[in-house]
Specification:
With 144 residues, the chain is an alpha+beta fold. It is built from five helices and four strands; from the N terminus they run ββαβαβααα.
C-alpha cells in the first residue's frame, strides 16, 4: 500500500503470501513522482535505480550490514514518520473492518476488502503527517 502525507491511499496491491513485497513496487509507483519512504525490507539497488530513472526518490533506512549513507535532514525526519502507514493499517483493520478471516468465498473476501478501502477514503480524520512547519522559524527554508 502507498499513502501520501495526508493519509490518502495512492495505490495498493493484493498479492499472495509467497510473493516478495518488493516485486509489485515498480508497478504500483508508475504514476507517482517525488519521494517514496519505505522500511528496510524494501532495500534493493535494482528498485532504487528503476524508480530514480522515473523521477521517484526511494528513501529507506540502511540495513545493519550496509555502509552508512548521507541523507538530507528533511528526509531523515520524514523517514521517522514512516510509521504512519502502520496507523493506516490499524484503521483499515479496526475501523474499516478489513481483517476478517472466515470468508465463505473469494468474492466475498474481495467485496469486504474493497468496501473497507472505500470506507477508509471517506473517513474525515485519517492518520497524517504535518510536513509543513508552522512555528519553527529556526529551520532554514532551504530544507523545504
Amino acid at each position: 500500500m502507498i499513502i501520501n502525507d495526508k493519509g490518502e491511499l495512492l495505490a495498493f496491491k493484493l498479492t499472495a503470501a509467497n510473493i516478495d513485497d518488493r516485486k509489485p513496487v515498480p508497478e504500483m509507483t508508475e504514476d507517482i513522482i517525488g519521494k517514496l519512504f519505505g522500511d528496510r525490507g524494501y532495500v534493493s539497488q535494482k528498485i532504487f535505480e528503476e524508480l530514480y530513472e522515473r523521477g521517484l526518490e526511494f528513501i529507506t533506512k540502511s540495513k545493519k550490514n550496509m555502509k552508512n549513507r548521507l541523507l538530507k535532514l528533511i528526509d531523515k525526519i520524514l523517514l521517522r514518520k514512516r510509521a504512519v502507514i502502520e496507523s493506516v493499517n490499524d484503521y483499515l483493520k479496526n475501523v474499516c473492518q478489513i481483517e476478517h478471516s472466515r470468508h465463505r468465498s473469494p468474492l466475498n473476501f474481495l467485496v469486504n476488502l474493497l468496501a473497507g478501502l472505500v470506507a477508509y477514503t471517506y473517513l474525515p480524520n485519517k492518520p497524517s503527517i504535518d510536513i509543513y512547519p508552522k512555528d519553527l522559524p529556526a529551520l532554514p527554508p532551504a530544507l523545504f
